[in-house]
Design goal:
single chain, about 425 residues, alpha+beta, BirA Bifunctional Protein, domain 2, Rossmann fold, 2 domains, 12 helices, about 20% strand, elongated
């Protein structure tokens, strides 16, 4: 029988040193982008009442995809499946009096989905994102996209593409058809999957004006830049659809002001999650990958479900996928590592710790040796960690400076502790 203590459950994994270093570094870099744009971080609980995530009418998570459990009062709780609903709850319950103002949030955290089992499918995801609430404008949409694109650039990625649509365009066209909700959902799904044959089969079965029928057939192919938007605008007389195109055209001009328009492609066939998104919708992809590394859009109806009606737009970075993309593109974030090993005898311990603390307060990375007084052993360990120096404190007054990697191939010098060149730091302890 397998000893489960030695394994992780399906869909989760351990992260070892290098992965953790990369995760910490990318979190810091992206966090700085968020802060540069003025977004302040909040944290939400890892688990909440299931109802926070389960409203499927607004694009919520299916119960079978949640990790659910009960508290002692019998209430059903769930591990966080999405970061946006808790942010909506925070905005509604804590900032209801500011609903006519701009509220901007950022977050980092893990989410959990009980996905179907197959090779490589994860059930725990590390995410980062921003939410902008209180403003419905193309400028708000543009800023969120600017944060997303600048975050990817800060991660070192360049070979990526942001696909942008507007679900209001599709909703506007549907207004002209008179089709049932069931047929509309089927049509939406077929367009989303680029199933051209099924789209044509559906629209030819029903009494739809020829111009609308032709537009549905062409919709999955309406991909490109400004020319596509202008062409699509000529194909419809529906006011909702035309406003949606105008909003995208305005958005493009805003992205030009940020000098990031080159990363954006418009796709009017992007029609997923009509119940959730109300305006722009976007996904980010890297070359040679079918998995999105970010997603987002406008969801003006969500916050009202928590008691306060306010418009909202946001995006989420799938940091697991970002890190994988960085690995595939050979992007390495230089990690600061300890370059000096401090070893000591019993007589030199106090001075070794004092000197190490001084170095650390100055921002240097220093590792204390716990291997004892064997010089050769300490040197071998330092070399295995690619360190450049060993400081071996013989006693409180004498230290051996051992260079492991200089032009001469290394050297050893025994000097007085007082001769060490130390940085100027303020008093204090580590």
């Amino acid at each position: 029988m397998r000893d489960n203590k030695l394994y992780t459950p399906v869909g989760v994994k351990d992260m070892l040193f290098e992965e953790c270093d990369n995760k910490r570094n990318i979190t810091h870099k992206i966090g700085e982008i968020f802060r540069c744009f003025g977004y302040r971080q909040v944290e939400t609980p890892t688990f909440e009442y299931m109802e926070v995530f389960s409203d499927e009418k607004l694009g919520g998570t299916k119960q079978k995809e949640m990790f659910r459990f009960f508290d002692r009062d019998g209430s059903t709780l769930a591990l966080r499946t999405d970061m946006t609903p808790p942010i909506a709850r925070i905005a509604s319950t804590n900032f209801a009096d500011k609903k006519d103002e701009t509220m901007i949030f950022s977050y980092f955290g893990n989410t959990f989905r009980y996905n179907e089992e197959y090779q490589g499918k994860q059930r725990e995801f590390y995410q980062a994102g921003v939410e902008l609430l209180g403003i419905d404008s193309a400028d708000a949409d543009g800023e969120v996209l600017a944060v997303a694109i600048n975050s990817l650039l800060e991660a070192g990625l360049s070979d990526f593409r942001i696909i942008v649509g507007n679900v209001a365009f599709f909703k506007g066209i549907l207004e002209e058809t008179g089709l049932s909700e069931e047929i509309c959902k089927e049509l939406q799904m077929r367009i989303a999957y680029r199933d051209y044959v099924s789209v044509e089969n559906i629209v030819t079965q029903y009494d739809i004006p020829e111009s609308i029928r032709q537009l549905f057939i062409e919709l999955p192919k309406l991909v490109g830049t400004l020319e596509v938007l202008a062409y699509a605008k000529r194909l419809t007389k529906n006011r909702t659809a035309k406003r949606a195109i105008s909003r995208l055209q305005e958005l493009y001009q805003i992205l030009r002001c940020y000098h990031i328009e080159e990363y954006v492609t418009f796709d009017l066939g992007m029609v997923g999650q009509l119940n959730y998104y109300t305006g722009i919708i976007f996904r980010g992809y890297v070359d040679d990958s079918g998995y999105s590394i970010l997603s987002g859009g406008r969801y003006d109806n969500l916050v009202a479900q928590y008691g306060t009606d306010m418009p909202a737009v946001g995006m989420v970075l799938k940091l697991n996928e970002v890190l994988f993309a960085m690995q595939k593109q050979g992007i390495v974030i230089e990690e600061k590592k300890a370059k000096t090993l401090v070893a000591f005898t019993e007589q030199g311990r106090q001075k070794a710790i004092e000197i190490s603390n001084i170095y650390r307060r100055s921002g240097m990375y220093v590792e204390m040796s716990l291997l004892g007084e064997d010089v050769a052993k300490n040197m071998a360990y330092a070399q295995s960690k690619q360190m450049s120096h060993v400081l071996y404190f013989v006693d409180s007054e004498t230290v051996k400076v051992i260079s492991l990697a200089d032009e001469m191939g290394g050297f050893t010098a025994e000097i007085a502790v007082s001769e060490l060149i130390l940085p100027n730091v303020e008093e204090g302890t580590i």
